[in-house]
Write a structure and sequence with these properties.
The complex is a heterodimer of chains A (about 325) and B (about 270). With about 325 residues, chain A is mostly beta strands. Chain A is built from no helices and 27 strands. The radius of gyration of chain A is 18 Å and the shape is globular. In chain B, a hairpin with a 4-residue loop joins strand 12 and strand 13.
């Protein structure tokens, strides 16, 4: 008997695979899409199972409460402390909407498709995968399964700006699946996933492209920034085959420093060698949540309705 | 009393240790991923080579060159393997702490390079068109069917080639993908029309019934057709997947996808 320890360069973890396991007859999950931690330290899971779209655990994996039956395409979950109160932003890829709720599920705002932008001729063009909320309350929506634009709305629900779109140019996307605000460098920047290209792209808050981070072999979901690191669920890896994936951890220079479940990151002349899975532990990790002890909670897509697991940093 | 305390401590320690190992996943509950195999050229004119990338520390890669399943008596990979004829190579990762990996099979084909300039391809999906010449660039696609190395077809594909001169064609290989989770199935039948220099046309058809069984794993498929009379000026290749997705699959009754990345001539 030997505890499994995965990861590299000091970012190493033991695995509690049963952490989020519940009775599937009472609290079923379909895809476990995203997870966040609220100001009370609770861990919130978003699933597209309409029995209970939000499942709330404590850090030991004890079920605390559930809510939500109206989000069939529940995909993206972002939490923002707004004046001392937690709010959630849910993207729904089937309703083609972004929904802002209170922490108990009470809806406070719904954003539909941006009719004023010519690329959006129908609601079905809008398939939002993620949101990021700036400190002034602006809502950045990544239309990652839709028209590949980043759409910026004010708290009044009015469209303020948009940029990106589908294409091969540096400021465009193929599968803009995730978005986050990187506050590590002193000034806010947008860090946006370009998944098909295995890249993260930096944009200014007003939508100007700045630079890219190449992560070959890592089909990444949204960036999750905690202290000096960026953590990313990596849904497919290597050549992009099914049932692959690992977790990626970037250091403060945005170099891949650890890939739990994947190969040892190796840079040659400043470029990362193509990454791949080495252990069949993860199946399509879709999001990570990092708690104050640097433990990681992993939600997985298309993994046989498994509940989230917990990676305990050692 | 002291003895009682010691026994109590021992029980507590035992419980603590036990619950620790129950809480954490054990190494021997986890399987190694199949080896990362890099083939210089799956389709080659004279020579190719196979390289294996590193796995978990201390992992050995057992391999065979005759199509059989590797075992601990098989050769251990330690340097790139040189290949100069068609063959089937199998690889398995093994390390004491983990379960052995699944076996990964690689087939390599010695081929004739022919410049294909006049070709009609009916009809790739607009969603997965691939790049223009990807069926004849001698490059193998990987398991990412979304990449431009693959052309995706709804159920069937017809490839009409005019060689524009007499060509010695002893057969051909259709390279396709099986990925049932993505509704992608292998060819079940390939119907060929050979056109000879004198204008004579010969029809030939072969079925490949065993390829669409359900084991849930993505794999590469190579469907080989041999031709006795070899001097052709044209060829028409009609590649048919299952008409609909089989009953065991969650998408039963709906259209199956056919994904092709290469056609090579032997």
């Amino acid at each position: 008997m030997k505890d499994l320890i995965i990861g590299h360069n000091g970012y190493q973890y033991k695995i509690n695979e049963q952490w989020g396991k519940l009775d599937s007859n009472i609290n079923p999950v379909t895809d476990c899409h995203e997870m966040v931690q609220d100001s009370k330290g609770r861990i919130l899971l978003l699933t597209n199972n309409i029995s209970n779209n939000i499942i709330i655990y404590n850090k030991d994996g004890k079920l605390l409460e559930t809510w939500g039956k109206e989000y069939p395409g529940a995909h993206g979950l972002t939490l923002k402390d707004e004046g001392g109160e937690d709010f959630l932003y849910i993207t729904d890829t089937e309703r083609h909407e972004v929904i802002k709720t209170k922490i108990d599920g009470q809806v406070v705002m719904t954003i539909s498709y941006p009719k004023d932008i010519p690329a959006y001729t129908a609601q079905s063009n809008f398939v939002p995968t993620e949101t990021a909320i700036s400190d002034n309350g602006d809502i950045y929506i990544a239309d990652g399964y839709g028209s590949q634009f980043i759409l910026v709305y004010g708290q009044d629900g009015q469209l303020k700006n948009y940029f990106g779109g589908k294409g091969d140019a540096e400021n465009q996307f193929h599968n803009a699946h995730g978005i986050a605000i990187d506050r590590r460098g002193g000034s806010d920047k947008l860090l946006i996933t370009a998944r098909q290209k295995n890249q993260l792209k930096y944009f200014s808050m007003d939508g100007q492209y700045e630079s890219s981070i190449d992560l070959p072999g890592a089909f990444i979901c949204r960036p999750v920034i905690k202290d000096e690191n960026v953590y990313l669920a990596t849904i497919w890896s290597g050549d992009g085959g099914n049932n692959t994936g690992f977790v990626s951890v970037l250091d403060k220079q945005n170099q891949l420093i650890s890939a739990p479940g994947g190969s040892l990151p190796n840079y040659q002349n400043g470029a990362l060698e193509r990454m791949y899975q080495t252990l069949q532990l993860f199946k399509h990790p879709h999001d990570v949540c990092v708690d104050e002890d640097d433990n990681i909670y992993v939600a997985q897509w298309n993994a046989g309705q498994v509940y989230p697991m917990k990676m305990i940093r050692v | 009393m002291r003895n009682c305390m010691m026994i109590a401590w021992s029980v507590l320690l035992f419980v603590a240790c036990n619950s620790d190992s129950q809480d954490y996943l054990q190494s021997d509950q986890v399987k190694l991923s199949p080896p990362q195999v890099r083939v210089e050229n799956v389709f080659f004119e004279k020579a190719s080579s196979i390289k294996i990338l590193p796995s978990e520390e201390g992992t050995k890669i057992y391999y065979t060159t005759d199509g059989t399943i590797p075992n601990p008596n098989s050769p251990i990979y330690n340097h790139p393997i040189q290949v100069n004829q068609s063959g089937t190579y199998n690889f398995m990762a093994s390390q004491d702490d983990f379960m052995n990996s699944d076996v990964i099979e690689m087939q390599l084909f010695a081929m004739r390079k022919i410049d294909i300039e006049n070709v009609e391809i009916i009809k790739p999906s607009e969603k997965y068109p691939g790049i223009k010449d990807n069926l004849f660039d001698q490059k193998k696609g990987d398991f990412n069917f979304r990449s431009t190395a693959w052309k995706g077809f709804e159920g069937e594909a017809i490839i009409n080639i005019d060689f524009q001169k007499e060509e010695e064609i002893k057969g051909f290989v259709v390279s396709s993908l099986i990925d049932h989770k993505s509704w992608i199935f292998a060819p079940e039948e390939i119907a060929v029309i050979y056109v000879y220099a004198d204008g004579k046309e010969v029809n030939h058809s072969e079925k490949f019934p065993e390829t669409n069984t359900n084991d849930g794993k993505a794999k590469m498929e190579f469907s080989k057709i041999l031709n006795e009379q070899s001097k052709l000026i044209k060829i028409s290749i009609h590649i048919k997947g299952p008409e609909v997705i089989p009953s065991w699959h969650p998408g039963a009754g709906k259209k199956a996808w056919l994904f092709l990345d290469e056609i090579v001539f032997l």
